[in-house]
Amino acid sequence: MLTVAVLISGAGSNLRALLEAASDPAFPARIVVVGADREASGLAHAEEFGIPSFVVPWRGGDQRAEWGDELLAQLDVWQPDLVVLSGLMRLLPPAVVAAWSPRLVNTHPAYLPEFPGAHGVRDALAAGVTETGASVIVVDDGVDSGPILAQERVSVLPGDDEHSLHERIKPVERHLLIDVVRRIAIGELDLDLAAASTP
């Protein structure tokens, strides 16, 4: 059984989808802990499903490394097989990436390498494209630059704004994330091979 830690910053819609999937006895992974960089509303999902949680308040600037060390200490307590970033709106310090990658995955609301960064949906609209997408990647030291594990296209419709487009991307992100976690758990997706095959 694959054990998973999920890190969030906000409402945790992807987290909830994973919790619901993992509550099925046939699903080959279990969430063992949920962490956040602030008192995020999504922690309520963990409480509802009886999953332990922790908060390591974000410390920017010259305290970013110390924040990363505290995060590592929390993860070490739980020793998950996989860490999922589910709307964690922070770039992880290099020490965290070094310790966990490639067992560290993230979702992104764009068809990478198109529109990386914090405003993927807004940037797609600004570029005037007719389609964007969602991706699940291995986290590396770059910004949304790690090996791509799964992705799917989403059409940009006439009249879309950032909210409406993002609302259509979110279910695709959830479906991709759940499937990636399932494939890792059953050995169908090898994260070491995925990382090694990317230049």
Automatic annotation (TrEMBL):
<feature type="binding site">
    <location>
        <begin position="12"/>
        <end position="14"/>
    </location>
    <ligand>
        <name>N(1)-(5-phospho-beta-D-ribosyl)glycinamide</name>
    </ligand>
</feature>
<protein>
    <recommendedName>
        <fullName>Phosphoribosylglycinamide formyltransferase</fullName>
        <ecNumber>2.1.2.2</ecNumber>
    </recommendedName>
</protein>
<dbReference type="InterPro" id="IPR001555">
    <property type="entry name" value="GART_AS"/>
</dbReference>
<feature type="site" description="Raises pKa of active site His">
    <location>
        <position position="144"/>
    </location>
</feature>
<comment type="similarity">
    <text>Belongs to the GART family.</text>
</comment>
<feature type="binding site">
    <location>
        <position position="106"/>
    </location>
    <ligand>
        <name>(6R)-10-formyltetrahydrofolate</name>
    </ligand>
</feature>
<feature type="active site" description="Proton donor">
    <location>
        <position position="108"/>
    </location>
</feature>
<dbReference type="GO" id="GO:0004644">
    <property type="term" value="F:phosphoribosylglycinamide formyltransferase activity"/>
</dbReference>
<keyword id="KW-0808">Transferase</keyword>
<dbReference type="Pfam" id="PF00551">
    <property type="entry name" value="Formyl_trans_N"/>
</dbReference>
<keyword id="KW-0658">Purine biosynthesis</keyword>
<feature type="domain" description="Formyl transferase N-terminal">
    <location>
        <begin position="4"/>
        <end position="181"/>
    </location>
</feature>
<comment type="pathway">
    <text>Purine metabolism; IMP biosynthesis via de novo pathway; N(2)-formyl-N(1)-(5-phospho-D-ribosyl)glycinamide from N(1)-(5-phospho-D-ribosyl)glycinamide (10-formyl THF route): step 1/1.</text>
</comment>
<dbReference type="InterPro" id="IPR004607">
    <property type="entry name" value="GART"/>
</dbReference>
<dbReference type="InterPro" id="IPR002376">
    <property type="entry name" value="Formyl_transf_N"/>
</dbReference>
<feature type="binding site">
    <location>
        <begin position="89"/>
        <end position="92"/>
    </location>
    <ligand>
        <name>(6R)-10-formyltetrahydrofolate</name>
    </ligand>
</feature>
<feature type="binding site">
    <location>
        <position position="64"/>
    </location>
    <ligand>
        <name>(6R)-10-formyltetrahydrofolate</name>
    </ligand>
</feature>
<comment type="function">
    <text>Catalyzes the transfer of a formyl group from 10-formyltetrahydrofolate to 5-phospho-ribosyl-glycinamide (GAR), producing 5-phospho-ribosyl-N-formylglycinamide (FGAR) and tetrahydrofolate.</text>
</comment>
<dbReference type="InterPro" id="IPR036477">
    <property type="entry name" value="Formyl_transf_N_sf"/>
</dbReference>
